[in-house]
Write a structure and sequence with these properties.
It is a single chain. The protein is mainly beta. The protein has no helices and 23 strands. It starts with about 20 loop residues before the first strand and ends with a strand.
């Protein structure tokens, strides 16, 4: 669309595009994600020559609920294209290899960079959202639900980079992440959130399966919360309530933040979606 008028740009006509869940744009190239990762000329919509397509797959036996294989969010940082993905494997050029939650690619060729693997993801986690402070990455995940910070240029063993700086458990998926003025804003369908490493907020009591946080170590936060960049939970507690799925989208505008999703009230004031 034209950014000033909202009119559709007439020259942009990509053809045969499968359903897309994510996109980002830089230097005249639109990168798009769904079950596959594709790149198009931002003016004409023509496929970018020489860009290697990737597809992702999920292992249905790993989780108790079904998820679709897809690239959920794309982020450009320091010459790399990062993807938060619902994925247990990736196929490129006829070769399939194991991947999990957060992966990266060459922006020029689309080639998967096997030297990057986010540390400590776990087997059942899948990536939903990713943000940056300009140097590090912040991943929102489902499955084994959490938000975590990663240093993409820092090694952690086996010749890999992507060391984990901190990780905080959430009682439901972290579905949106944004970084603003030294804060990490997180949204999702959680109602309990960790303030320390090792807190298990989504763990259910063996005597009462409906009870979250049976060890009483987590902090109540309804679907929206904030950490400092070092992982300290902030006192900010807007109390987003209503539909189960909660917060799906965050957008920054200076010192303001816009929130979208499935909810009915914010701080007990009626505010639909």
């Amino acid at each position: 669309f034209d950014g000033a008028t909202g009119a559709v740009r007439p020259g942009f006509h990509p053809a045969g595009v499968p359903p897309r869940q994510s996109l980002t744009v830089s230097n005249g190239v639109v990168y798009t994600g769904g079950g596959s990762l594709l790149a198009f000329d931002a003016t004409t919509g023509a496929p970018v020559p020489g860009f290697s397509t990737s597809t992702v797959q999920v292992n249905a036996s790993l989780r108790g609920h079904k998820i679709a294989a897809q690239f959920r969010e794309l982020l450009l940082l320091n010459g790399w294209l990062y993807a938060a993905c619902q994925c247990d494997s990736l196929t490129q050029g006829g070769t399939t290899r194991a991947v999990t939650a957060l992966i990266r690619f060459s922006t020029a060729t689309g080639v998967h960079d096997r030297s990057f693997a986010a540390e400590g993801i776990g087997v059942t986690a899948f990536g939903v959202s990713v943000a940056t402070d300009g140097s590090d990455l912040y991943l929102g995940a489902g499955g084994s639900d959490f938000v975590a910070r990663y240093a993409p240029g820092t090694g952690y063993g086996g010749g890999l980079v992507g060391a984990q700086v901190w990780k905080r458990d959430t009682s439901g998926s972290t579905q949106a992440v944004a970084v603003s003025y030294g804060d990490v804003i997180v949204g999702g369908h959680f109602v309990e959130i960790a303030d320390e490493t090792g807190d298990n907020c989504g763990f259910r009591s063996s005597t009462d399966p409906t009870k979250l946080d049976p060890d009483d170590v987590c902090i109540s936060r309804n679907r929206l919360a904030a950490y400092t960049l070092d992982g300290t939970l902030q006192s900010w507690d807007p109390g987003v309530t209503g539909n189960y799925n909660g917060v799906w989208a965050l957008a920054l505008d200076g010192t303001s933040i816009h929130v979208g999703g499935e909810f009915r009230r914010v701080h007990d004031v009626r505010q639909t979606y």
